[in-house]
Amino acid sequence: HAIDKYGYDLERDAENKPAAYKNDYVFKNDIATECLPTIYDLYAFAYYPNKEDEMGCRIERIIEYILDERFLYLPEKGYVYDQSNKRCYASGNVYHACLREDRKLLTLYLLSFFKASKNSDLFMSQIEQLNEYRYEDGFYAFDKALIKEKKNLYQLYTGGHMGLGENRRSKKYLKIESTFWMMAILKNLE
Description:
Layout: H1 2-6, E1 26-27, H2 39-46, H3 54-66, H4 69-72, E2 79-82, E3 87-90, H5 104-111, H6 115-118, H7 121-131, H8 155-158, H9 173-189
Parallel strand pairs: 1-2
Antiparallel strand pairs: 2-3
């Protein structure tokens, strides 16, 4: 509903923002009835079992919307206005299904489940960037920041647990985990 209504014109005009948020990015959508795709939605969509039914087609349309850089690069700090309570709530790109550096691998993995991703230049350029971490032996070794494993971080929206349980003191862990994630992404894209 919000996608059809607003397209990518998502920011409220200055005169329609609450006074305390005049200089901030405040979304137009009504949080009660007009939701934008979130990272939680992306998880659910990725594991939706029947990609060919009517719901699967609707999901693909949402993924096409997400894959536009106007959505993927929403501001980090943003707010949604709750008309009924007359207050704003934080809702920047950490919450939405945006491409953030701190969860890049997680987002690319989830997006790899969709046909729309294969047709997206932006998505495929991100995959090409990951391919730059490939060694002559065929294994990958990503930057450590992509294979995050940190206590007290949320997996769902920060990608805080991308590790696979390998011994982090071993020099091999980075190759094992990087190669696993890259192979998982590439398998989804087949």
